[in-house]
Design brief:
By secondary structure, this protein is mainly alpha-helical. The chain has 1 helix and no strands. It is elongated and about 75 Å long.
Length: 67
């Protein structure tokens, strides 16, 4: 059984390296993608931060009391 598994792995390995239909053997250069990022990254409104929310409850809540 392990011999069959090794044969299958070898066949799969050689099937991926045949080179037929690949761009390397045809002499054409494949264009590489260019980065469109602009650094430093700035988000909309980064220079005008919004005020942080404040609690709407003005009375103390006793968290230590049991029910």
């Amino acid at each position: 059984m392990s011999v069959l598994a090794v044969v299958v792995l070898v066949v799969v390995g050689f099937a991926g390296t045949t080179g037929s239909g690949s761009a390397e053997g045809s002499g054409k250069k494949v264009p590489r993608p260019r980065s469109t990022a602009v650094y430093p990254v700035k988000f909309p409104g980064w220079d005008r931060p919004r005020p942080r929310p404040t609690p709407t409850v003005s009375y103390p809540i006793p968290w230590d009391r049991g029910h």
